[in-house]
Amino acid sequence: QVVFALNQTLLQQESLRAGSFQIPYTTEDLIKHYSCGDLSSIIFNHDTSQVPNFINATLPAHERITAQEIDSYFRQELIYKRNERMGRRVKDLLEERPDKSFFFAFGAGHFMGNNTVIDVLRREGYEVEHTPAGQAI
């Protein structure tokens, strides 16, 4: 699986450099949606946008199964579990020190797709509000 993942990642990078494969959104698109608090836009609804996409129709059946297994592993280990840990850490800090004020800053990856840090905190009963860029806190 590791060799397969490495080969697929390298093939995608080669395709990007050659111009035969394009990402459906630009960095500017990500920044615009993130800054506007538009975390439910189509760009941010892809759980695997942070990891290479190994699944494609040109793969033989046995490789497609491997690709699905790797995709599932990455989604679970690198996205869902990570956000659960981060959300629990925030919750624990808030509960351990209820008399303190906190400011938490996370990279954009913690807000993409499903099961984000925000989702974890909302499930715990916290209200989370977006603060637009330039707005005083």
Automatic annotation (TrEMBL):
Protein localization: Cell membrane; Membrane
Membrane topology: Single-pass type I membrane protein
Example GO molecular function: metal ion binding
Enzyme class: hydrolase
GO biological process: negative regulation of Wnt signaling pathway; proteolysis; Wnt signaling pathway
Cofactor binding comment, as recorded: Divalent metal cations. Mn(2+) or Co(2+).
Assigned GO CC terms: plasma membrane
Keyword Cell cycle: no
Cofactor dependence: Mn(2+); Co(2+)
Keywords attached to this entry: Cell membrane, Glycoprotein, Hydrolase, Membrane, Metal-binding, Metalloprotease, Protease, Signal, Transmembrane, Transmembrane helix, Wnt signaling pathway
EC assignment: 3.4.-.-
Residues of the signal peptide: none
Keyword Transmembrane helix appears in the UniProt entry: yes
Database matches in InterPro entries: TIKI1/2-like, TraB/PrgY/GumN_fam
Function: Metalloprotease that acts as a negative regulator of the Wnt signaling pathway by mediating the cleavage of the N-terminal residues of a subset of Wnt proteins. Following cleavage, Wnt proteins become oxidized and form large disulfide-bond oligomers, leading to their inactivation.
Family: Belongs to the TIKI family.
Record protein name field: Metalloprotease TIKI
Species this chain originates from: Anthoscopus minutus (Southern penduline-tit)
Organismal lineage: Eukaryota, Metazoa, Chordata, Craniata, Vertebrata
